[in-house]
Design brief:
Chain B: InterPro entries: CcO_II, CcO_II-like_C, Copper_CuA, Cupredoxin, CuRO_CcO_Caa3_II, Cyt_c-like_dom, Cyt_c-like_dom_sf, Cyt_c_oxidase_su2. The complex is a heterodimer. Chain A is mainly alpha-helical. Helix content of chain A is 71%, strand content 0%. In chain A, α3 runs parallel beside α5 (127-149), α6 packs antiparallel against α7 and α8 (260-294) packs across α14. Chain B is built from eight helices and twelve strands. Chain B has helices at residues 2-23, 36-68, 87-122, 234-245, 254-265, 305-313, 315-318, 331-342; strands at 130-137, 140-146, 154-157, 159-163, 168-174, 179-181, 190-192, 198-202, 208-213, 226-232, 295-296, 301-302. In chain B, a hairpin with a 7-residue loop joins β2 and β3 (154-157). Classes of the chains: A mainly alpha, B alpha+beta. The structure holds protoporphyrin IX containing FE and copper (II) ion (2 copies). One copper (II) ion (CU) is lined by residues 179, 214, 216-218, 222, 225 of chain B.
Chain lengths: 505, 345
C-alpha cells in the first residue's frame, strides 16, 4: 500500500487542533480558490463588491456617452446627427441604464463591500446569493446593451408607458429586452437587500447595538427595506407587460377591459421610492465623509436616523405626483401634493445636520469634502424645484418638459453622483490600497460642478418656455436655441470632469 | 475654494436670469400667459420662485459661513457625539428644531396656496359656452367643434380657434397611445388616454397666435406633434366658424379641376375627407378647408403652396415615420392636386 492512499485521521475541530492548524484550515475555506475558475466563482464580498462597482461605472460611462450624443443632437434646432429612431432608442437606453444598471447597483455595490466591514463581520450573509446577484445583474445589462448595439434597443422611454410599449404599438423584440432586463436587475437588487438586512440584524459584532451602527449602515438598511417593498411592484408590472406582449393577455389593453393607467400606478409605486433607493445610500456617504474632513463627530445622529425612517416611509406615499396630468380625481391629487411636500421636512433636517457638522468642525477641504459641498449646493436646488413640481397647478405646466429633466438630474446627479464621487475618493485606498491624486481630484470636482450647472440649469428655463422632453429635434425661432447650446457646451465640460476622474483612478 | 464656488454660482444665476427674462415671451411659454388659468399658474410660479429662492440663499449662506468662518485653535472634538452634550450641541439642536418647524410652516403655506390656485383654475369648468373635441392620433390632432345641432358641427385638424374671453370646454380622447394636450400660454397640460375621456377648459384673455405641443412621449414623431391656437374676437370667430361649416368650394379653373380628379381617383381618398366630394375617409386630417390653416402636418411646416407640394410629394422625408405614405404622383398630377387643395380656403 502506498503512503498516498493512507487517509489522515481527521479530528473535526476543537482546541486540540492547535492555533496554526486552525488558521490553515480557516484560510483554506475562506480564501478565494486560485485560477480563472476561482476568480469567477469567488463569493468574497469585497471581490464581488469591487466587481459590482467597476461594472456599474462602465454602464455609467456608456450611458454618459449616450447623453453626450443627445446633447450634440439638441445643440441647435433641426439638427440631423441622429435619426428619430436612434434618438428614441438613445434616450431610453440612457435613462434605463442610468437608473437600473448604474445608480441602484452602484449603491448596492458599496453596501456589499462596506456594510460587513462596518458591522464587523467576516462575510456578508448568503455570500453565494450575493455572487449570484452579480451575475444576474451583469446578464441583464449585457443583454440590453447587445440588443441596443444590434439596433433592437428599447425606444419607449425608461418608464415604458403602455399602450405605446404594448404589442400593438411596439411590435418586435425591443420592449421584450427592456422588460426582461428589469426582471434580471430587480432580482439582483432584491437578493442584495435581503443580504444587507440579515447582515445588519444578525451579524453585528458583539456590543454593536443598533444605536451604534454607522449612519452609512442605517442608510443601507432603510434602503434595503425600501427595495423589498418597492421592487415587487415593477417586477409584477413588467411581467404583466411581457405576458401582454408574448402570450396575449390584456392587462393594459383598454379595448379588452384592461387599463392603461394601471401600469403607471404600478410603475410609479416602485419608481418614486426608486429615487430614494438611490439617494439614501448617498446620504450614508455624506454622513461618513463629513465627520472625517470636518474633523468633528456628526451632529444629530438620532435626527439623521429618524429622517431616514421618515423618508423611507413617506417615499411610498408620493407616486401619484408623477400622474397629475392623467385626470385623476382632484381631491386625491391634492393629498399627494401635501405628501410630496412633507418629504422636504426630513430632507431639510438632514441638510441642517450636515451643515451644522461643518459649522462646528475644523474642515480640511480635501476632494471628498468638495464633493459633499457640491452635493449640498446642487441637491438643495433640486429639492426646491421638487417642491414646485409637487404643486398640482405648477406641475401641470412643468410636467414632461425640460424643467423636469433639470429637476431630476439635480436630485440624481446632485444627490447621488456627487456623493458617489466623494465616496470613491474617500474609500479608494480601502478598495485598492492606493490614494488618488488630490490635484486631479480638485480638477475633477470643479469641471464636474461647473459643467453640471451649465448643462442642467438652462433646462429649467427651457421647460418653462415650452420645450417638452423626449423630442429628437425642435424648430428654430422658439427661443430655445440659446439655452440648448449652453446646455450642450456644459455637457462637454461635464464630460471633461468625468474624463479627469477616469484619468485619476 | 468655497468662495469661488459661490461666485461661480452667482455668475451662473445671473446669466440664467438674463436668459430667463429675455426668453419668457413666446408662443409656447408658460411664463407669457394669455389666459386666465395660465395667468394664475404663472402668478403661483413667481411666488414659489421667490419664497424658494430665499430659502436657497439661506442654505447657501449657511453653507458658506460654515465652510469659511474663522475657527478657534485648540483641541479637536473627541469621542462619539452621543456620549456627551456640550453646549454647542444643545444650541445646534435648538437650531435644528427651529429649522424643522420653519420648514413645516413654509410647506404648509405653499400647499395651501397651491390648493387655492388649483381650485380657482378648476372654477371655470362648467361655465363653458363652446365644446371642442380633440382626438390625438399618432402624430396629429383631430379637432371637432361639437354643436347640439349636428349640421352646425364640423371638423378640422391641428388647429383650434377660440373667441376671446369665452371659456371653452375641450374634451380629450385618444385612439392609439397616450398623448398630452398642452398649450402653455393658456393652461397646463392634460393627458389623452385611450379608453378614457378627459377634459380641460381654456379661456383666452387676449388675441394672439399660440402654439401647443404633445407633451407625452407617443412614439416615433412625438417631436412633431404640435398645434396652432388662435384666439380671435367673437365676430371674427363666428365668421370663421360659418365658413368652416360650408363644403369645399368648387374648382375655379381647369388645373384645379384636374387636381380634384386626381385626388378623387388616387390613394388620397382612402384616408382623407373633403366635404362636397366623394372623399370621406377619416384616417388622416379633414382637408375640406386645408388652405385656411396656419401649418401643415401638425406644426411641422408653415402653410404655403410650396410646403404643401413638398409634403404631398414626400411626406416621409419631411416627417419620417408619419402615417401618410408617399403616393408617387407624377409632377403634373402633383401640380393639379396642389392647386386644388390650395383653393380650399
Ligand atoms: C452624465 C451626464 C448626464 C447628461 C449630460 C444627461 C443628459 C440627459 C438628457 C439631455 C436627457 C433628456 C433626454 C430627452 O428627454 O430627450 C436625459 C434623460 C434622463 N437622464 Fe440623464 N444625463 C446625465 C446623467 C444622468 C444620470 C447620472 C442619471 C441617473 C442616475 C440620469 C438619468 C436620466 C433619466 C432617468 C432620463 C429620462 C430618460 C427618459 O426620458 O426616458 N442621467 N439625460
Ligand atoms: Cu402625442
Ligand atoms: Cu407625444
Amino acid at each position: 500500500m502506498s503512503a498516498r492512499s493512507e487517509k489522515p485521521v481527521i479530528r473535526r475541530d476543537g482546541p486540540a487542533l492547535g492555533e496554526a492548524e486552525t488558521h490553515r484550515r480557516l484560510s483554506l475555506s475562506w480564501a478565494t480558490p486560485p485560477g480563472l475558475w476561482g476568480w469567477l466563482s469567488s463569493v468574497d464580498h469585497k471581490q464581488v463588491g469591487r466587481r459590482y462597482i467597476v461594472t456599474a461605472f462602465v454602464f455609467f460611462l456608456l450611458a454618459g456617452l449616450l447623453a453626450l450624443a443627445m446633447r450634440m443632437q439638441l445643440s441647435g434646432p433641426e439638427r440631423t446627427l441622429l435619426s428619430p429612431d436612434r434618438y428614441n432608442q438613445i434616450f431610453t437606453m440612457h435613462g434605463t441604464t442610468m437608473m437600473f444598471l448604474f445608480a441602484v447597483p452602484v449603491m448596492e455595490a458599496f453596501a456589499i463591500f462596506l456594510v460587513p466591514l462596518m458591522v464587523g463581520t467576516r462575510a456578508i450573509a448568503f455570500p453565494r446569493l450575493n455572487a449570484f446577484s452579480y451575475w444576474v445583474y451583469l446578464a441583464g445589462g449585457v443583454m440590453l446593451w447587445v440588443a441596443f448595439i444590434l439596433n433592437a434597443g428599447p425606444d419607449v422611454g425608461w418608464f415604458a408607458y403602455v399602450p405605446l410599449s404594448g404589442p400593438q404599438f411596439s411590435p418586435g423584440k425591443r420592449v421584450d429586452f427592456w422588460a426582461q432586463m428589469i426582471t434580471f436587475t430587480e432580482v439582483a437588487a432584491l437578493a442584495v437587500s435581503v443580504e444587507i438586512i440579515v447582515t445588519v440584524f444578525k451579524q453585528r459584532a458583539p456590543g454593536m447595538s443598533l444605536n451604534r451602527i454607522p449612519l452609512f449602515v442605517w442608510g443601507q438598511l432603510v434602503t434595503s427595506f425600501m427595495v423589498v417593498f418597492a421592487m415587487p411592484a415593477v417586477m409584477v408590472s413588467s411581467s404583466m407587460l411581457i405576458m401582454d406582449r408574448l402570450i396575449g393577455t390584456h392587462f393594459f389593453n383598454p379595448a379588452e377591459g384592461g387599463d392603461a393607467l394601471l401600469w403607471q400606478h404600478l410603475f410609479w409605486f416602485f419608481g418614486h421610492p426608486e429615487v430614494y433607493i438611490i439617494f439614501l445610500p448617498a446620504t450614508g456617504f455624506v454622513s461618513s465623509i463629513l465627520p472625517t474632513f470636518a474633523r468633528r463627530p456628526i451632529f444629530g445622529y438620532t435626527a439623521l436616523v429618524l429622517a431616514l425612517f421618515a423618508t423611507g416611509f413617506l417615499g411610498f406615499g408620493l407616486w401619484v405626483h408623477h400622474m397629475f396630468a392623467t385626470g385623476l380625481p382632484h381631491l386625491g391629487n391634492s393629498f399627494y401634493t401635501a405628501a410630496s411636500m412633507t418629504i422636504a421636512i426630513p430632507s431639510g433636517i438632514q441638510i441642517f445636520c450636515w451643515i451644522a457638522t461643518l459649522w462646528d468642525g475644523r474642515p480640511r477641504f480635501a476632494t471628498p469634502l468638495l464633493f459633499v459641498i457640491g452635493f449640498i449646493v446642487v441637491f438643495v436646488l433640486g429639492g426646491l424645484s421638487g417642491i414646485m413640481l409637487a404643486s398640482v397647478p405648477l406641475d401641470s405646466q412643468a410636467h414632461d418638459t425640460y424643467f423636469v429633466v433639470a429637476h431630476f438630474h439635480y436630485v440624481l446627479i446632485g444627490g447621488a453622483v456627487f456623493p458617489l464621487f466623494g465616496a470613491v475618493y474617500y474609500w479608494f485606498p480601502k478598495f485598492t490600497g492606493r490614494m488618488l491624486s488630490e490635484r486631479a481630484g480638485a480638477w475633477n470636482f470643479w469641471l464636474f460642478f461647473i459643467g453640471f450647472n451649465l448643462t442642467f440649469f438652462p433646462m429649467h428655463i427651457l421647460g418653462l418656455i415650452g420645450m417638452p422632453r423626449r423630442v429628437y429635434s425642435y424648430p428654430a425661432g422658439m427661443g430655445w436655441d440659446g439655452p440648448n447650446l449652453l446646455a450642450s457646451a456644459g455637457a462637454v465640460i461635464l464630460a471633461a470632469g468625468v474624463a479627469t476622474f477616469l484619468g485619476n483612478v | 475654494m468655497k468662495r469661488a464656488g459661490g461666485l461661480a454660482t452667482a455668475a451662473l444665476t445671473a446669466a440664467a436670469l438674463t436668459v430667463l427674462l429675455t426668453g419668457c415671451e413666446g408662443v409656447q411659454s408658460a411664463l407669457d400667459p394669455a389666459g386666465h388659468q395660465a395667468g394664475r399658474i404663472a402668478g403661483l410660479w413667481w411666488l414659489f420662485l421667490g419664497v424658494l429662492t430665499v430659502i436657497y440663499l439661506l442654505v447657501l449662506a449657511g453653507l458658506l459661513i460654515a465652510a469659511i468662518r474663522p475657527r478657534r485653535r485648540g483641541r479637536l472634538h473627541q469621542g462619539p457625539a452621543f456620549a456627551k452634550e456640550p453646549p454647542i450641541e444643545r444650541r445646534l439642536t435648538r437650531g435644528l428644531t427651529a429649522w424643522a418647524v420653519g420648514t413645516g410652516v413654509i410647506i404648509l403655506t405653499l400647499t395651501g396656496l397651491s390648493y387655492a390656485v388649483d381650485r380657482d383654475v378648476l372654477g371655470l369648468t362648467g361655465r363653458a359656452e363652446l365644446e371642442i373635441e380633440v382626438t390625438a392620433k399618432q402624430w396629429w390632432w383631430q379637432v371637432k367643434y361639437n354643436d347640439p345641432v349636428p349640421s352646425r358641427s364640423f371638423e378640422t385638424a391641428n388647429e383650434i380657434r377660440l373667441p376671446v374671453g369665452v371659456p371653452v370646454r375641450v374634451v380629450l380622447k385618444s385612439q392609439d397611445v397616450i398623448h398630452s394636450f398642452w398649450v402653455p400660454n393658456l393652461h397646463g397640460k392634460t393627458d389623452l388616454i385611450p379608453g378614457r375621456v378627459n377634459e380641460t377648459t381654456l379661456t383666452a384673455d387676449r388675441e394672439g397666435r399660440f402654439r401647443g405641443q404633445c407633451a407625452e412621449f407617443c412614439g416615433f414623431q412625438h417631436a412633431n406633434m404640435a398645434l396652432d391656437v388662435l384666439a380671435m374676437p367673437r365676430d371674427r370667430f363666428d365668421a370663421w366658424r360659418a365658413a368652416q361649416l360650408s363644403s369645399a368650394p368648387a374648382p375655379g379653373d381647369a388645373l384645379q379641376e384636374q387636381g380634384r380628379q386626381v385626388f378623387l381617383s388616387s390613394a388620397c381618398v382612402m384616408c382623407h375627407t373633403i366635404h362636397g366630394t366623394s372623399a370621406a375617409s377619416r384616417v388622416g386630417p379633414d382637408l375640406t378647408h386645408v388652405a385656411g390653416r396656419l401649418s401643415l402636418a401638425a406644426g411641422t411646416l408653415p402653410y404655403n403652396k410650396g410646403n404643401l407640394a413638398g409634403w404631398i410629394a414626400d411626406p416621409q422625408r419631411i416627417k419620417p415615420g408619419t402615417r401618410m405614405p408617399v403616393t408617387g404622383l407624377s409632377p403634373d398630377q402633383l401640380q393639379g392636386v396642389v392647386a386644388y387643395l390650395d383653393s380650399l380656403k
